[in-house]
Design goal:
By secondary structure, the chain is of the alpha+beta class. It is built from nine helices and 14 strands. The chain folds into two domains: about 170 residues, Cupredoxins -  blue copper proteins (Immunoglobulin-like, Sandwich), CATH 2.60.40; about 90 residues, Immunoglobulin-like, CATH 2.60.40.420. The strands form five sheets. It has a five-stranded mixed beta sheet with strand order 3-2-1-5-8. A three-stranded mixed beta sheet has the order 4-10-9. The radius of gyration is 28 Å and the shape is elongated. The structure holds heme C and copper (II) ion. Copper (II) ion binds next to loops.
Amino acid sequence: MAIALAIAGCSASGHPMTTLAPKSNLAQWIQNLFIEVTVWDAIILAIVVCAFILAVFVFSSRVGEAAPASAASSDLGLEIAWTLGPTLVLVMISVPTIRTIFRSQPALAPAGALEIKVVAHQWWWEFQYPDGAKTANELHIPADRPIRLLLESADIIHSFWVPQLGGKRDVVPGQINELTFVATVPGMYPGQCAEFCGLSHANMRFRVFVDLPDDFAKWDRAQLAGPAATPATDLLASNGAKIFANSPCTTCHMIRGISKGYIGPDLTHFGSRTTLAAGVLKNTPENVAKWIGNPQETKPGANMPALLLPGPKMNALVAYLEGLK
Ligand code: HEC
Ligand SMILES: [Cu+2]
């Protein structure tokens, strides 16, 4: 029963944080290594169990039997066998392991790689594209193209982990770590900070959208530099734009053409994201209002102060933010 439950917990389909459903070359190499080592382990386990059963049931002395003669105190053949055996086993396991470690090191950037800067913050993720596009907590990448992530931290140690796209990589202040891979299957893959980084560590999630190349190009064009959308006809949203421009929000948030803050996520295209606060809330008007009114309630420790606005003003501000597609 316990084993059945444990195995059910590993089912590859259905669990988004599974490491057993690789969707990139890197994740596939790790999976192959895992299977290879498991097969060798299983063979060794079978040999050991057989030897054990033979020793217990076949070669043990029976009641009334004389004790078996002990082996010669030094038997060169045996000594060599039990030195070479384990050595061979270690070689069998270390060769593919070391090969995979070297393969996963991005020392040489593959030709045509898309370089994206990833900045980890307590407790959210920033993604900066070479063409100037910038987003938070939702990384879009094209399928079938090498991706090179340059991982930086704005504060303390974090770890970038998307189970279906590859292994964890630490994000360390004062240094740039890299992760390269080619995502092979379009889809949405959840990620999570994998290094304890304080109060809302568990709330430091993100999403990776692997898009078909055309969809990615479209997304990228829409996110590109240039002033943010201005609410043209929507009265509520244009009121919201004024409220934002005259609020303390501008000290921490960038909305291109409006404000230059950089402590919090760039909100220029906030309305195009599916979630907010690092994957913790779905991006709906109710949730945005809830977040602004009390970020700490959703995310203990969040580095954003609450701003209590009277209802109509809050509605206007939310309408403006949601209109920033
Ligand atoms: C002291 C700096 C600061 C101020 C002032 C501030 N914020 Fe934030 N804001 C942040 C930080 C930091 C985050 C990221 C929190 C997290 O996810 O852990 C954030 C997150 C957000 C998000 C979610 C963004 C996303 O993509 O996940 C929205 C929306 C937002 N703030 C709106 C506002 C509005 C509107 C105001 C003004 C009423 C405001 N903020 C004031 C720092 C600030
Ligand atoms: Cu973290």
